[in-house]
Amino acid sequence: MLETLPVKSVKIIAEVGCNHGGSMETAIEYVKAAKSCGADIVKFQTYYPANLVNPSKEVLEFCQKSYLGVNDHIKLISACKENGIEFLSSAFCIDSLLKLDKIGLKTIKVPSGQIFNEQYLYFLGKMKKKVLLSTGMCIMQDVIKAIRILEENGTPQDDITIMQCTTAYPAPANAANLRVLQTFKVLFPKSDIGYSDHTEGWETTLAAVALGAMVIEKHFILDDSTFTPDRPVSLLPEEFRQMVQEIRNVEAALMSSVKAPHVCERAMFNRRDIVNRSYL
User: Looking at the predicted structure, is the pLDDT value of residue 9 above 80?
Assistant: First the structure.
């Protein structure tokens, strides 16, 4: 017997990253704009410039300028609470994990590069947080191993959301490999699945929702006036707002697996009877 699917809203993350350029005033503008565009979560990045691995000179200078300290994180968390949106951050090293733990963050985003860092995963597993695990550059064995390390150290599989991701800026649509979402769901049935989008536009986010993604992450930028490494994959506010609306439309279209007349079809019932009688 077919059953009605449970209603469970897709969580949409506005990925600010370092697009604020180190300005707290701008970062708080991002919080407000993400909320106004319909995002559920606004995400930043937590890192120490000295711990970054082989950045270009331009990227290193930008990251040094965009660095957020503990007090900056606390201010952003407060701004998120005031604006009714959840704060999230990616931890780019163990020191960053410790910083986010210190300020009480209950959910941690693992950027793709750290999925290979066993010591990082060991520390994170011990923290028993909710985890969003990005899987760019991975083969499936890397994902299986990372989840095993997290589980063995105290983080259950149902606290892990596995995010399909292609680490390219931008990634072509034919590199999104969205059917991997279905493979994740078979291999890790207790986990939610999600998609971190690095393509231009947002068509692939809609396809990901149709394939069962419960978390969508998309880069977000207020304007085109300044350099950021993430600009090629970032949406402007009006674009992000449109993406959110289209995701909600797809989500509504997936409401039920039961084949039965919808209430909106009632006006057609009499017409159906007339058609049927015409063949008697």
Answer: yes
